[in-house]
Amino acid sequence: MRVGVFTPLLSQLPLAAVLKKLAALQINTVELATGNYPGDAHCKLSMLEDAAALAEFQKVLDHGVTISALSCHGNALHPDKARAKQDREVSRKTILLAEKLGISVVVDFSGCPGDSPHATAPNWVTCPWPPDYLKVLDWQWSEVVTPYWIEHAKFAADHGVKIAIEMHPGFVVYSPETMLRLRSVAGPSVGCNFDPSHLFWQSIDPIAAVRVLEGAIFHVHAKDTQLYSINLPRTGVLDTKPYTDERNRSWIFRTCGYGHGAEWWSEFVSTLRMFGYDSVLSIEHEDSLLSPEEGLTKAANFLNSIVIREQPTAAWWT
Q: Which residue ranges make up each domain of the chain?
């Protein structure tokens, strides 16, 4: 297991400066965004047709740096056809760039359609009644989700790339059950980008979820969540207030260690390894109470100490 960083939190810096900063934190693994929601500050898809730019990019990485994944979190199922086309194109090009760079994982969202062919905005269904909602959900999966993901998963597999879907509320895949449903439709080239922060506030135990998703975890984000019991009775967990309204929200994203301590993260790392995942913990900073600089430094120091402590050693009897 090793610690990495999802670099949009340092988007104001050029890639070379990012790598230098991370090296000082004993990190030499990065996850790079290529467009859609996270932007493309450090990895341009135009390199697919620009050999000189690609060579320069690879030269910057030539000092022992590895890329854990390329990420293009978008909504390829958006009911706005122009938006869907744009996000789909970014995803396809990201897969092609991953193939060219020898990277095996691309991180994405599952997407969310509207409620009909005439919709203009996504419609995330969260309850089974009134019965209109189940009709919408059935239409979404049968008419939009399934056809797209069968084709897109095949495209990824044909290019030797796996797609790691981040289980994120607001999209059709937001839980282990919906993740496995998509995987049953799309096949083994589609799995999970496991981000515990999105499970905490849904009252899903991330450590138990690792067991449920055995064999389907392709990548892991390291991000924490803090729940505020003083606000939960008033708001519930489906809290639509801005993330910056920290004092009134029922939960917010936190830097690793600020929502759950070392004991929890140690067990999380151990369970991941126990169930077949022994790759990167990619730090994603979305803590509105800490600056990117402070949040990154604290998360790196915290996780480095845990990963070192949790490294397996040969038993005396082997």
A: 2-309
